[in-house]
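Help!! Second protein's tokens look totally different from the first
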Amino acid sequence: MTDSPLTLLHHIGATDVPSDNGATFELRSPTNGSLVGHVARGSAVDVDRAVASARAAFTRWSNTPAPARGEVLFRAAALLTARKDAIAEVMAKEMGKRMEEARGDIQEAIDTMFYAGSEGRRLFGHTAPSELNDKMGFTLRRPIGVVGVITAWNFPVAVPSWKILPALVCGNTIVWKPAEEAPASGALFAQTLWDAGLPPGVLNVVHGFGEEVGAAIVAHPDTKVLTFTGSTPVGRGIAETGGRMLKRISLEMGGKNPVIVMPDADLGLAIDGVLWGAFGTAGQRCTATSRLIAVGDAHGRMIDELVVRAKAMRMGDPMDPATDVGPLVSEAQRGRVHGFVERAVADGAHLRCGGQLPSDAALRGGWFYPSTILDGVKRGSELAMSEVFGPVLAVIQASSFDEAIEIANEVPYGLSSSIYTRDVNQAMRAVHRLQSGITYVNAPTIGAEAHFPFGGTKDTGNGHREGGWAPYEFFTELKTVYFDYSGTLQRAQIDNRED
């Protein structure tokens, strides 16, 4: 990597190509506004070229033995490991993630590569005895076709890996639109796959904007599968369009994740977890801890320490190891976050720290926002119910365990949740009653592992899961095979049952 601006082109088939109309857009750092690169701005024409490339590659790739498909991923994992620091540097520059967290983002993709590669030898079907003599039945998993992948900017390598790698191992081909805010680190991730020997046309990348490239991928008649990570309103639109076309669709969307802290909890551990969950990645995670539900006297025993430690968090360059909180991804995102805080204060919430645009001259060139805590947030208020996607923690008091569960469940989302308690019985009751796809006990709401399913309930998604074994079912069609070696016509129930 160099300090010179990058030039990012689409990758269609075997080559890097400009947009059909020659359009580009600038990619600028949220840290200081510096130019990171010039990016090809795709259109429906470019998507059509990419889909045609993926269709042409499908027959060969789908007929490649699944273990051989997995071996490509093993080679790519070695390359991604060697390039981790260089790609993390690009990620920090283009979307503001701290270097430590950027390396973690990429490591998650490396872990997923190894897991997905091994699944090439475990695309299991089932066998069962037939009800007839000299006949057997079994199932196979078969690839579906061209997969349209649309991903968000906050995890520009890890989240695409959850989608792209299982789809590839299952024998599908892909057209991928990386997020326009973070296309460079995604392109470098894709490069490891091409360099590892992924055949031309199997993975095609078209850069650009959702209303141009994303919409074209969704509406294209030859994309048979759609997988999306992003906002709930956009996901609903994808579901409507794709649903009319009978496409298979996986949606991973918003969250409003609670941490419940009981009075018997290890409060030092809970404070550590809440701070990391709320302010890691500047709160720009779908799993971020957005609500602290403090039960009984847990509130009074932890709030002051939370505020002191949040105030001490240092904003700054994500390349600087001393930085605790990097910038938000854009000016628009910072304005959105600040609007939530201003409206919450007007609604009666008590601003305990943060909530102001930074005055430090060193930060004025970027989209920084301080770690912010609002106490006394009302149940049912905007801040209690809506996803902020920034470093803002809403503190809500509850009088009992039952009330805390009610508060946790009253939002429209259901991605991640957490409870801190020393009472194992109480912890297990929370696990069963919290309406979320993920529940942590004595840990924050963030921190997915590659070999476990990831996803949520309610407005967070449409029931599918990424990570672990789940996506290999989503990215394949189940085919049932009946093998009759009797040499005679057997008419199933007609010949197998006496009247």
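Here's the second one for comparison:
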Amino acid sequence: MILPIFISFAGCPHRCIFCNQQIINGQKENTLRAAQRQMEELERWVHPDPANELAFYGGSFTALSLTEQEALLAWADQRRQQGLFGAIRLSTRPDAITPPILDQLARYGVTTVELGVQSLDDKVLTTVERGHTAADVDRAVALLRQYGFRVGLQLMVGLPGQTRQSLLETLDHVLALQPDGCRIYPLLVIKDTKLATWYQKGLYTPITLEQAIEETALLHSTLEAHHIPVIRMGLQPDRDLCAPGHILAGPFHPAFGELVRSYEWRQIIASRIAGQGLGNYNMVITCPDSLASVLRGQHHANVRAWEAGGNIKVSFVPGQKVEVNFYDR
């Protein structure tokens, strides 16, 4: 289990055009005491387990001073020695990775570092004011590997200036880096950001939910096919993010990851139907109960799409794995 501690904007040298961490994660403070309060809340219900991981999210941890980093890490290490969790992970910027920083992270039990990459297209990175380049990502990943850390990359779809070709090139670059995991987020227009101003002035139009699902599915399916796990798709739909007026526009859905997986299954089974050829069929899908709703699609959208594609009647039966069989009517 990941135990998240949010240090909103802590260490960030500036704010990217799309970012309002206080709304995204609901934490208004980024002090050591604020982190301690979050941990006290977690301790009320978390069962101590060495498999748990403490995670510092919401800021650029390694862009803090070494002294500030050590204060947070030393405090966390006390909980680690008490058995609440076994390892620490954190998110940060790719241009804030140096040997002295990594020496200290390793000393305090950090095992995984997630880099906020968003894109590996320098033009896109400049447009969204990330303040780093794709080359910074390459250097950071190489250094993290040298020190033995697990590496995560955080990617986004729907960024200003991000074309299909740009997305494909970013995907190829990520495959070459071979991270240990990825997260994929669709860009949302959040209140009190520069992107919100652009949107209100008509300078930015977000992609649709359908586009976000399709582009995320492209990244997800390709990464998974190359044995790179995707550990999250879409932002956590917590109370602060979903409060009225916080999301101004963009492809938000509280079950975004499930929509992506459902879309992938729609395409997979549609290709099976196409390969079956013309006919009048009963298509029987065997699958575990836990996958049935994903396969059917939201409001049975997948079933309707498959049945609309020909003389096909779809039915489901429970089973251990997904199988698709066709029977003549």
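Reply: Different proteins will give different token patterns, so don't panic. The CA atoms of residues 101 and 113 lie 12 Å apart.
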